[in-house]
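Note to self: the last two entries modelled the partners one at a time, which told us nothing about the interface. This time every component goes in together.
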Amino acid sequence: MTLRFGLIGTGRIGQVHAANIAAADDTELAWIADPFMDGASRVAARFGGTVTADPEELLTSGEVDAVLVASPTPTHIDLIARAVQLGLPVLCEKPIDLDIRRVDALRETVRAADVPVALGFNRRFDPAFASVRARVEAGEIGNLEQLTIISRDPAAPPASYISVSGGIFRDMTIHDFDMARFFLPDIVEVSATGTAAFDAGAREHGDFDTAVVTLRSSSGAIVTIINSRHSAVGYDQRLEAFGARGALSVVNAPTSLVSLSTADAVEAKPPYQDFFLERYAQAYVDELHEFVKLVRGETAASPGFEDGRAALVLADAAQRSATERVAIRVDLRK
Amino acid sequence: MTLRFGLIGTGRIGQVHAANIAAADDTELAWIADPFMDGASRVAARFGGTVTADPEELLTSGEVDAVLVASPTPTHIDLIARAVQLGLPVLCEKPIDLDIRRVDALRETVRAADVPVALGFNRRFDPAFASVRARVEAGEIGNLEQLTIISRDPAAPPASYISVSGGIFRDMTIHDFDMARFFLPDIVEVSATGTAAFDAGAREHGDFDTAVVTLRSSSGAIVTIINSRHSAVGYDQRLEAFGARGALSVVNAPTSLVSLSTADAVEAKPPYQDFFLERYAQAYVDELHEFVKLVRGETAASPGFEDGRAALVLADAAQRSATERVAIRVDLRK
Amino acid sequence: MTLRFGLIGTGRIGQVHAANIAAADDTELAWIADPFMDGASRVAARFGGTVTADPEELLTSGEVDAVLVASPTPTHIDLIARAVQLGLPVLCEKPIDLDIRRVDALRETVRAADVPVALGFNRRFDPAFASVRARVEAGEIGNLEQLTIISRDPAAPPASYISVSGGIFRDMTIHDFDMARFFLPDIVEVSATGTAAFDAGAREHGDFDTAVVTLRSSSGAIVTIINSRHSAVGYDQRLEAFGARGALSVVNAPTSLVSLSTADAVEAKPPYQDFFLERYAQAYVDELHEFVKLVRGETAASPGFEDGRAALVLADAAQRSATERVAIRVDLRK
Amino acid sequence: MTLRFGLIGTGRIGQVHAANIAAADDTELAWIADPFMDGASRVAARFGGTVTADPEELLTSGEVDAVLVASPTPTHIDLIARAVQLGLPVLCEKPIDLDIRRVDALRETVRAADVPVALGFNRRFDPAFASVRARVEAGEIGNLEQLTIISRDPAAPPASYISVSGGIFRDMTIHDFDMARFFLPDIVEVSATGTAAFDAGAREHGDFDTAVVTLRSSSGAIVTIINSRHSAVGYDQRLEAFGARGALSVVNAPTSLVSLSTADAVEAKPPYQDFFLERYAQAYVDELHEFVKLVRGETAASPGFEDGRAALVLADAAQRSATERVAIRVDLRK
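The predicted structure of the combined assembly is written out below.
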């Protein structure tokens, strides 16, 4: 049976979800909500669906089986709460919110409700990362001792964005915190170091553009996250899982199979992909597919509300650690 | 304006074209012909289109603007002839035919007609090969002196197929002959060496499963084609353009960004893609797109009837060379 | 003119220096001191030199122009002091000592004396690291923002060694601290996280076998050092200098140009070199060569006493940080 | 016991052998002959040995146990003949001669004599090629079906050299013919294609600067050799052994572990080594070592007179094939 989706938010990432919902055999774009009606209409023209400016109308239409929340972060909490209240499964883009108190206020409601709530940590669905995780779980490299994540965006966002982003840890590292927890769910300590090495916007708003975070897992493993808000070579997304018997590595995705060799340099390849929409195109497809299975009770694999909350707890701890220059203990099991 | 396609043949490759025609914004699958009506109906159910067992009905329906011929090789000549007669542009899968006399018999008709006829040498549209060719043309490596093509299929076809294939040169190397001519159109000499190193079917039918072909271009460049009917590591499709100032290389497409390092071996990657439908998926899309532009008079880039004929002339010469053990001169400009 | 060397200590690393001194055109192995006379005699038989059990005899022989100290760490301080007193240039293996108070007690003497004292941080002379540093200095990647050092030994030392090693930071990371300062001399803060993930010896002696250290430079750059006492794939020595305009990377040294591709895995290479004597063979040669130039007043490039002290200050800070779970500020300019 | 060497010829390659003979523990440079006495004296000053202008004096000195012939090609035949007559083992640089009739005239003498005669096909001793061959022999990739050798020199020699070189096949491809026979000794057919694509000297003297040779083995395997007299990226020496169960590949030797990534290109490495003295430095050492073992009766692994002859037979066949445009059958077992 086709799952009818209500999509809330038609920005860059909303459009990706719209296309994927329309393309899959077992999903359908039924309703689209966005106060910017032009955006909603454009998406509807392309992929179908009834358009509204008001999410409430979508949620109570009786014509959607699941909700995809891709609207601005400050709206997430209320939309999740309302969807859960109506018994509608939700796939919500990360982060849940920038304020842990607001997240905690919703926590019991979500826990109590018998409705699937999934968080859009799309990188878990990337075929490379998913494969490494499965192979680590299968014991291919023995006990996991170190996880190294290099994650650099192509270019720093405008200062106006920085000012409302919640800072690099809540805005950008949040993905890496979840990736760390994909391998090592029970993180117990966070140490972070940040600088504003190049970006005037970061400096102006007391934010960092360059950061390194070290996490300790209750298993004794150490995670290292290396971040930068810019990368001249393109989107830099690498990972190394280092275990007792070997290592599994994910390199950057090549944009071409072609290399050039001359008297100046050999085997030179073109720069990496520009950004996440290309690098994680397949991950978004697989994420949607997994969410459909979750709604149907066929899997429990999707990252959920608790994962979204845990990533925010780690981001908050990193922010404190980077400011107060101490390691911060956390208890994600509470 | 949408280009209405008539698709003839709904086998493996016909289905790829059907999907691409249905997916593109400016094309539509209007008619589908296949004597195996079940196949045609399945494709129509998925991608639309009126179904018939008889290509003539499709060609004369008045409802198709262009014809895509993906039926068995022996039908190509007649279908091209009829389409051209009706003024319908054709994109025909390779080869035109296995018999150069039949091709030559059609040659004047095609030349005289003012109808675009394109040949499905899809590899020209592969982003990697197309990029190397463009960069060679742009002079990035200076004068092209050597072209090396390694082209190995994953596994030998059944003996029953070998017997009607026309032999390795007409069936498999034909793609590499066209790739050679993509870079160096004016080939003047062909030398070929073949053996049946492993395949009982090839041996039984006097065919080769392993072959090396050397081509000389009128420009003085030498092309080397290295073929095998099997490859334990997967579909092996590499190319090196070697010029006076450097080289441009195409490596095999990785199937994953993951590598494994252990005490036994480091940086070990998963085997290559299985076969051409995956390796050249994008090429088929771009090939269709380019054909649409050709029909609209916006480009002349597609390989055409003369390219299909030239590849067959080279295949025939290779067959003779491999048998008679002499180099064979050819004149493709005649 | 030939520089006559007195070598003190004929263990594993002393033997490397003996061979290099004997092989170079402008150096000569004149005296060899080791209380284990058998070792000294074996070295003398191979590379020449007068043998003694007593370093004092070597130092006061009047037949040596420079001293190479490769004896156990606790002897370094006194040997450096005595050599400097006698006006003899010294190349001393790292570390100067495990106790910063003893190092500081010698500091003024070394500063005041007009005798070259070089520290054996051999990795600075590795052609790959030296090249990256020169290219960074030349501005090839713009302002250096992040330095990532992965440094893993093949296998953990015996528990007996762990107990006298001074701990992972003073024993193993000390090289990485110096490498960090090779690029960014003015480190102002140290954060460290360690665990005993696999080694019973480390656990028993309250040491770590796995550690991550983050350093901040006064320039605003961040250094990440990732350590493990073992590595199934062999000696793991990588570095990435990440700058505003690009990155320079050092990969592990291949032990062979051969790779294997099969149906299981493609491009699989043999494991990395076993350990530092092989990986840094050329570095030891170049280190000696540079020291000779230093003695001759032709360069000031060698790492010296202050570099040895700085590395120990960073190691001490890392130890405190890893224990007390706070970032430690340091002032290397004092 | 130390093997006393007489070295005849002190050019570029003679000096390499002199250094290796002097450096090994079990060999000694006893006599050096070269009509250019200056060269001989310089080598003697560095590595020891008595100097003469006349090889006969060296051969009959009674002070040499083995002879290393590194003099110009036209002198090889007579020197081998005389050494064999005197019962002195010989390691002779390739080729034996450019004229097969002169080689054949010596053949019976060498066969009849009970004196080891080794040919300087140094590439057999390269650790990478030797390892691939050992692994192929061990069955690691199953039956060997194709061998591909890419062999390009950095730059074309002067026209004056071309005129006396015997042509590209006898001068340059000769190494590749022997490499082919290292894997597949019984070559039965040769096809060659050559052009003068860029070098005026080659054109002037009727030689080729660019060539492709195809060999057939009695086992049914096909060898492809791809040659060029120049290569902008440096010395290009690659090999792929392709078998029923996989492939073993040798890539070019990197000159550095460093790669550069910028917005223009990623993972760009420095050009390859300049030429054979660097690329095959270890091979020359191992070749000498193996020859010493041969003299001592401990191995029969070195390529010998028959291998030198076989390579020349293949070169002659290639020359005929490239000229007459036919495949040439050869019988190396006769």
